[in-house]
Write a structure and sequence with these properties.
single chain; 647 residues; alpha+beta; Beta-Lactamase; Helix Hairpins; 4 domains; six-stranded antiparallel sheet; 13 helices; 45% helix; binds adenosine-5'-diphosphate
């Protein structure tokens, strides 16, 4: 390749002296190549390697100036990377990439892949080993080619002395080939290093992401590491908030610009809209050519820019913005590196968002829990107060009932004495008065009895004396006490045949009598005139009840006004009465006759104290259509003797 490239510069003579002469530069070139190869160590970075290579070439050959360029085939540009000797490199100094065309002579060497001497005397031998000054100036361009690709250029400026030893471009070309291989190796090494560093940096960010929930810290770290890999002057992570972009993290902004307060309005088809729409990075090589660019007051003007979308759950939520204040477009590699970092930023932001919503949910939950705690405390206080009040009421009822009982006993005792007195017995008017008095005291006695029963149920001191009894017998015994009322109200009461087959049960007869009588009285009371009441029963196996043992069921069915489903349970609470108390008529069996609202509460207390159940079934309350009610009482054959808690 060296010979082919510089073929016409090979010595034409074949005498020994000429051969030796021609061999001299090749020996130097060989020595140089070896020296350059030795520069390459596993840790050699690109910059010092190029610098030292340039120095060796200059020292060894005594050139005036040696510049080493790197060539980027994709952008067709060169960049001066090392320079020794006089003056400055003519192109691409200071890390700037310059289009190859601008460097005409150098460009020619790159394109032809041939080592060229200065155009002024291309045919003359080029002095390689000139050590004297005073000759004419020469410029030599040696393309650095490896794997069929020009990756750099060696540019030599020299002065040829009049008697200088002739040199060979082919020797320089050979040096160039060696140098290219070394640069290629170093470049690979550099790339590998960069890749490793990138992975390390992404790892650090990933670890930080896993350890902290502070998005600001992660975002700052992302910008810091990104700056070392993709050089830029200003970096920002911007989030969309409504129709504006706000800066969540920044790097390289002047302090006076207060960047965290910078809000950039989003305009139709501006750079952010493009990033948002395409969901792809956007590169702007020269911002001055973008009329839609929004310059932020107080910031140095931007030249080259890169915007990378921040995607959370497939939604663009903002962008990573990297600005260069000099014209230096971002490379494809830099774009893909920035994408990796923007991905990390998205994860951090998403984590923060999830954490925020979790914190919010937590706060709401805590607030609700504390409210509930407060409410439950207040409820507890109210409940305790109610319990105290209820106990006071029960205590009062107990005391009052006992207190009423004594004078009532006296009253009815004297009343009966009077009634049996022949004077009264023979006097119709007096007889009526005394009988009225006795009926009143009797009714008062019942009320006081009910109040005492209720108080006993409430205080769980209801005493039951179970004895064998036939429910049918009990019901049949109650029936005559209602006969007059049934006649007056034209109500039919049927005692079903099924009652007779009910077995013997063990129960407190007095207590169960109260239950059944009360249900029968209520059935009459809440059924309009000419209605009907039917009482029936059945025996239940252990599996047919929720009591877990064999039982009997007695049902009192009426064709009365029925019960609203909403109050089906409430009617069993003490003192509960539906409708207006004032509109109730008085009298035990008068239609809707008033009562103290204790009957069903006592009935439930007694039934439950036997380990039984009581409930009502009714399609609803309707005084016009009278849907009726079915009161069910289930009693175990043998009482479980559970003392029901008062309600
Ligand atoms: P009282 O009859 O003294 O009001 P109860 O405890 O016996 O008290 O009954 C409570 C409420 O249940 C009654 O006020 C009434 O509204 C309703 N109720 C009871 N039995 C019936 C029934 N057979 N039909 C319709 N409503 C009834």
């Amino acid at each position: 390749m060296a010979d082919k490239a510089a073929g016409r510069d090979l010595p034409a003579t074949d005498d020994i002296a000429a051969r030796e002469e021609a061999a001299a530069p090749l020996q130097v070139a060989l020595g140089l190549s070896l020296e350059i190869a030795e520069l390459l160590t596993p840790t050699t970075a690109m910059a010092p390697l190029l610098q030292r290579a340039a120095e060796r070439i200059q020292i060894r050959c005594g050139f005036d100036a040696v510049t080493l360029y790197l060539v980027d085939a994709t952008t067709d540009s060169i960049q001066a990377r090392a320079h020794v000797g006089r003056g400055q490199p003519p192109f691409g100094a200071g890390g700037t990439w310059v289009p190859i065309d601008q460097a005409d002579f150098l460009g020619q060497a790159i394109r032809t892949r041939r080592s060229l001497a200065e155009a002024a005397a291309p045919h003359r031998p080029v002095p390689l080993l000139t050590r004297d000054r005073g000759g004419s100036a020469r410029t030599i361009a040696v393309p650095l080619e490896v794997h069929d690709q020009v990756i750099g250029l060696l540019h030599i400026r020299s002065v040829q002395s009049a008697d200088g030893e002739p040199a060979s471009l082919s020797a320089l070309h050979a040096v160039g080939c060696h140098l290219a291989a070394v640069i290629d190796h170093a470049q690979r090494y550099d790339r590998e290093q960069q890749q490793r560093q990138l992975i390390e940096k992404l790892n650090v960010i990933g670890r930080t992401l896993a350890q902290t929930l502070d998005p600001e810290r992660v975002l700052d770290m992302i910008l810091m590491h990104l700056a070392t890999i993709v050089p830029h002057d200003r970096g920002a992570i911007m989030l969309q908030e409504g129709s504006e972009l706000i800066m969540r993290a920044i790097r390289g902004f002047p302090a006076y610009a207060s960047p965290l307060r910078i809000r950039v309005p989003i305009r139709t088809d501006d750079v952010y809209q493009t990033v948002y729409r395409t969901r792809q990075p956007l590169l702007i090589a020269d911002i001055s050519k973008r009329p839609d660019w929004q310059h932020v007051e107080g910031l140095p003007p931007a030249q080259s820019w890169l915007g990378v979308p921040l995607l959370v759950e497939d939604q663009v939520i903002g962008m990573l913005s990297l600005t260069r204040e000099r014209p230096d477009p971002y490379t494809d590699e830099e774009v893909s590196l920035s994408l990796s970092f923007s991905h990390q930023a998205s994860v951090a932001l998403n984590n923060a968002r999830l954490y925020d919503s979790l914190t919010q949910v937590n706060a709401t939950l805590e607030q609700t829990v504390s409210q509930l705690r407060q409410q439950s405390f207040e409820l507890q206080v109210a409940f305790e107060q109610l319990k105290r009040l209820d106990k006071a009421k029960t205590d009062f009822i107990t005391v009052a009932s006992h207190e009423l009982r004594t004078p009532l006993t006296v009253l009815s005792g004297y009343g009966q004495m009077l009634a049996s007195d022949p004077v009264v017995a023979n006097d119709e008017f007096r007889g009526q008065v005394i009988n009225g008095l006795l009926a009143g005291t009797g009714r008062l006695n019942t009320i006081v009895d009910n109040m005492l029963d209720m108080a006993r149920i409430d205080s769980q001191t209801l005493e039951l004396s179970p004895e064998p009894m036939f429910p049918a017998v009990l019901i049949k015994a109650i029936y005559p006490t209602l006969k007059q009322a049934l006649r007056e109200r034209h109500i039919t009461m049927t005692l079903d045949k099924s009652l007779s087959s009910l077995p013997l049960i063990e129960a407190d007869t007095t207590a169960i009598r109260k239950v059944l009588r009360h249900l029968m009285v209520n059935a009459v009371k809440y059924t309009p005139d000419r209605g009907s009441v039917r009482i029936w029963g059945r025996t239940l196996g252990a599996r047919e009840t929720t009591l877990g043992q064999p039982a009997i069921e007695v049902v009192v069915s009426d064709t009365g006004i029925g019960i609203d489903p909403l109050v089906r349970d409430l009617i069993f609470a003490k003192f509960y009465k539906t409708g207006q108390t004032a509109t109730h008529s008085s009298g035990e069996t008068k239609f809707k006759g008033g009562g103290p609202g204790l009957g069903l509460a006592i009935a439930r207390g007694i039934v439950e104290a036997h380990g039984g159940r009581i409930w009502v079934e009714s399609p609803g309350y309707d005084e016009e259509r009278c849907p009726g009610s079915d009161f069910h009482v289930v009693l175990p054959l043998k009482p479980a003797m559970v003392l029901a808690e008062g309600r």
